[in-house]
Amino acid sequence: MSRNTDVLVLGGAGVDTIVQVPELPLPYADSYMIESGVHTRAGQTGDFVALGLTALGLRVHHLDLLGDDSEGDLVRALHEERGIGLTAVPQPLGTKRAVNLVGPDGRRLSLYDISRSAPEDRFPEDTVRALAAACRHAHVSITHPCADTLPLLRESGVTISTDLHNWDGENPYHEPFALAADLVFLSTTALADREKVMRRIAREGRARAVVATAGAEGAYLLADDELTHVPTVTPPAPVVDSNGAGDAFAAAFLYGHLSGEPLARCAEYGAIAGAHACTVPATRADAISRDGLLAEARRNAR
User: Fold this and answer.
1) pLDDT tens for residues 139-186?
2) Residue 95 has what pLDDT?
3) DSSP strand E in 141-280: where?
4) CA distance 195 to 51
5) 262 in a domain, yes or no?
6) For labelling alongside 258, which of 7, 37, 38, 233 has CA 20 to 30 A away?
7) Are residues 233 and 269 in contact, defined by beta-carbon separation less than 8 angstroms?
8) pTM of whole model > 0.90?
9) CA distance to 41, 93, 160, per residue, from 98 (Å)
10) For the chain, what is the domain count?
11) Does residue 17 fall inside a structural domain?
């Protein structure tokens, strides 16, 4: 069968409500006046990865559960506007949503509404098999019920990536994702010993590469049993929000990987895209273009 999709993104579709707060942690008070307003827009982890990949010129399809609600309408509209294929499985409980409190330095605190999923939620197996048969690669979000798709994706023969986000290296929920993926991304935020966890993922799972992002410290790449540091890239504009930086990193890394670039170059692409994402206000869902990414990579090489 012809694989006419570059990347199938599973899960992570939803809506965020953005609130700019004067500081984080936010001290208790009866009320705060929010001069910048309260903004609701489509875009959670799967949406951002799909958006980033599409902006880099890859053919993308997104699969997730969506409700017949205003939040679901925002997600559908984002995909239609950006030309991203979408298969929406009906979710009677509604579309995933969150509230993001964003501080002046761009840091965020996310409050996730977990009432919009149920343990028995599943993607139709026939749908997963058909979409997997048409793609080169699958990026699997850790949102429920994506773990159940991992065996089906392995059977299809596609390569798999995942982002464990702020895994602590111990929570068993994340392990199926960590051990089934060929490329594993995660944040160092909750890791007491990042190298130990990265090497465990590589040793016990299938990962050809494990990448741990560390914010202003850069990132770390484990490949061929060698751990290397990936330096930060100076953002092209003031940092206003870190939301979506990890997703941008993953998307640009995958662009490089699917283009046949060495892993070190893929990580450089990720650092460039992550830095760009930090300059985009949380109220917008934008991503670096392929021309912009390659131009910045050329500047870095000088």
Assistant:
1) 999 999 999 999 999 999 999 999 999 999 999 999 999 999 999 999
2) 98
3) 159-163, 183-187, 209-213, 219-223, 226-230
4) 30
5) yes
6) 233
7) no
8) yes
9) 10, 15, 26
10) 1
11) no
